[in-house]
Amino acid sequence: xxxxxxxxxxxxLEKNGHLVRIHEEVDPHLEMAAIHMKVYEAGGPALLFENVxxxxxxxxxxxxxxxxxxxFIFRRTWNSxxxxxxxxxxPMKALKSPFKHIGTGLAAVTALPLKKSSSMPVAMHExxxxxxxxxKHWQEDGGAFVTxxxxxxxxPENPGIMNSNLGMYRVQLDGNEYELNEEVGVHxxxxxxxxxxxxxxxKKGEPLKVSIFIGGPPAHTLSAVMPLPExxxxxxxxxxxxxxxxxxxxxxxxxxSNDADxxxxxEIHEGETKPEGPFGDHLGYYSLTHPFPxxxxxxxxxxxxxxFPFTVVGRPPQEDTAFGDLIHELTGSAIKQEIPGVKxxxxxxxxxxHPLLFAIGSERYTPYQKVxxxxxxxxxxNRILGTGQLSLAKFLFIAAEESEPLDTHHVEHFLTYILExxxxxxxxxxxxxxxxxxxxxxxxxxxxxxxxxIAAAGDQKRKLCKExxxxxxGLAGFDHARLVMPGIVVLQGSAFTNYEDAQREMSSLxxxxxxxxxxxxxxxxxxxxxxxxxxxxxxxxxWATFTRSNPSxxxxxxxxxxxxxxWACDNLIIDAxxxxxxxxxxxxxxxxxxxxxxLFAKGASLSGVQIS
Length: 612
What we know:
The structure is a single chain. It is built from 18 helices and 30 strands. By secondary structure, it is of the alpha+beta class. A hairpin with an 8-residue loop joins strand 19 and strand 20. The relative contact order is 0.11.
């Protein structure tokens, strides 16, 4: 099915049992988001909200809630898109098998954007921001947000649609200091294309023209989050994935997507910022209020039957998890072309994506010798941490694949492999005073923190403990020891107060453990606020440990020391307690949770969805 617009996709999903209509009136203040999360958690269908309180427009969510539904949406173009991306990564394929790739060339024809006119698309009319479904997701959010925007800008030095950037940067529609209907906030982070365009506009002394597309064929939404091969624009990819050329017009000098349901146009002027946030984010915490660019709204357009798509982010997994799975399937091989020697890189969703990377690499530097220690994989690690958004990671665990096949998505097996081979006095490498994800508040400031590479290669060095060693009993200030998985024990400590006290506490713990004798079977020790929660599931361990720690400040070690500026220890200790400077976690509103149950009752629109 080739969708010309979002409604055609919704009709197709409904016919095939992938979508349910909600007829009852639903409040965009917290209720819509809470319903979405309940249905997503239950593995339920996409949702069409037909009666949004305070707005004449409908809204849709959970379109991409499962990988199977996403593949169903793109079933007609999926294989051809993979082939085109494959040829971008390896052009020699076309020369080796030219007839096999004829279809790929034909598919690529749909990738070229198509200009329709310089007047308003017939189906569109002007509206105001307040006419939109103003969806607030979490109780402490600063206002209503657009969570699936396609934010379009052009290179001010070389304008035109083929020199554009289409990115997904959240947009705050109201609240804080924004003048309603006149201004919106645009939250973009480091390593984003829009930032380059704004820098160029500033140099020219011009405002940056911005168009925010909402809705349209689902391919357009996915294109805004795709990490594409160098030289392939998001709009050519949108046409390719949609199976239909991206259609656009220019109105008052702004690019307008003819297929979008809504378009907001405006300008960002140099130095103009306003407080944006808080916002419940995909790490499972609020991103706090910070100054971000404010866009002066020029005009807002909508189709008469427009549908407002949205998603809800929070502690993984959420709908954006399926985005990650889709991206991995479409572009997973691209990283191998970009970084020679890498076999796999996995941004771990359960840990919030950016905080934690798992990687597999090759060890080919000395093929005439049996591998004894990391060498090439350290070079690969540096390349990974210098590549695009991968550079925002804090923790990188990398292993050399030798005789035993590895899969970074098998978390416990992968970590076991590393912990069995890790030389704690040699294989831990820190990067301090550097950048990290804007949304991660474990560091020393906004965008600031540290990184650590933990590398493993060679033969197995230890057998890992499969129960809590008795040495973890009787430790002053630390108790309730529990096993997370072989080789990893969590200890519960008192609440974190400040780093001066924490260093004293960790020093005392390290000495106490050292005095108890060798603990080589337990290479990793986690300090936490609640050891029962931390050890209940692997996902709890991944989320709480790697979102609540900054390597340079929160990694300690038993018998730690420096040798020629290299840090070493006998057992790694990570302080994953909640710190006062960190953002608060996201907690559902119990009154809202109770209120939305009416929609799941017998006879209601969602009675067929089983929720907890």
